[in-house]
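Sample pair:
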Amino acid sequence: MVKALVFLATGFEEIETVTIVDVLRRAGIDITVAGLTFNVIDGAHEIKMVPDKSIEDVKLENFDAVVVPGGSPGYKNLREDPRVIDIIKEAFKSEKIVAAICAAPAVLSDAGILNGKRCTIYPGMEDELEKGGGIPKPDIVVVDGNIITSKGPATALPFALRIAEKLAGKQIAESVREKTLANILKW
């Protein structure tokens, strides 16, 4: 079974995090939500989530993808955690899918994996990509090799579907798109 790791830090963006977990589970992907701590974690808008595990209890070799939700101060908490940076670096080096949305592509930039890569980020934060050598694009979802980035809460559904397509295949992603009625939206 295909497996993905989703990080969870205080100040996470709720729309992004829940959409990613929900869509990928609908696609049959085994998701582990790993918190920077193994406690209830408060989102940016005071919605609480309980991680499946602490980041201390996960091993990258058990996953095919790493997903980094945004939110503020969630992305700041992730970028300041050396465990997160190390996992992202290793995932990229191991050619696993590395995906980030909203402000979280800044975490990928800090990890040094965006050099020469097309990517996107929350509008107005493009300098975060450029400082890591990333090439900012205006698209709502950008895929460059094993890196997938997206702009923010409203783009969480197409972002998650793109990850599902990479991990579970086009047919399964299309089925999830239709069952969630995402196929009637224009993006």
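DSSP finds seven helices and eleven strands in the chain.
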